[in-house]
Fold:
Amino acid sequence: MYTFNELQTQIEKKIDALEFSTSAEGLFEPMKYILSIGGKRLRPILVLMAANLFKDNLDKVYLPAIGIEVFHNFTLLHDDVMDNAPIRRNMATVHEKWNSNVAILSGDAMSIKAYQFIVSCENKYLSSVLNVFNQTALEVCEGQQFDMEFEDRTDVHVDEYLNMIRLKTAVLLAGSLKMGAIMADADEEDADALYHFGLNLGMAFQLQDDLLDTFGDESVFGKKIGGDILCNKKTYLLIKAQELAKGDAKIEIEKWIGEGEFNPEEKIAAVRKIYEDLNVRDLVELEIDIYFNLCQDYLASVNVDDKKKENFTLLVKGLINRSV
Structure:
């Protein structure tokens, strides 16, 4: 069995070795840039970890796994344009370094390259792998649509938010695991168990991301802390705070949401204090624990020796305590 770090090293080497032969260098330079500035490589590693549960030789799984990473980064290029985000992984976003048109077009090219890499899987798995990937890719777009719609709504409920992050974030982790299992001849029950493991992992991961955006360390987290607060982004924290706030707290949070001009540091500090006073941070952490516990349940149901699952257990423990 390969460890997480071993697979991460292999993925990094293979991404660094990617070549994009084209006369339109300006199309692929932003792609090389976004792939070069790091990231956890969690999604391609999950593809490989799932496959490694059922087979030792992963040579024919690496390129489809890289396809998932390329697809993920394509979504980041477009998300950053939509959010007008200046920083990604402590570096300038593509639309900041170049411009929005470049980010959109290079993102489009990345989506095509992702398909090229994914269809390199063995022919006997191609139909099943594409079915999972196509459904996943569509759901990611649905999640982004809901996220955009939430910007103009004041009545978003927690259940709606959880469904949005399931689509926007969790299904790609889940799909990565299922694709890896399929390419290693796992039976349907095990592939589905790994899918639901990934789904719950993704939910916990995104809720933690929301938490870190408000309470994390900016130098470690890789982007500005409080960004969600400044743009009134509908997160679990904000939605729950609006639901729980009464009296002066409700008046204050609505004031900050409606304020057109403000001191950014003052707004972040004030809203964060409201979250703390309402124990919203504790409620998010409880929700995260629920999803992590479900991860363990689905992992336990996968019909392989427990020794082979140790990397997954370590991964879950690492994500529970992550700061980035």
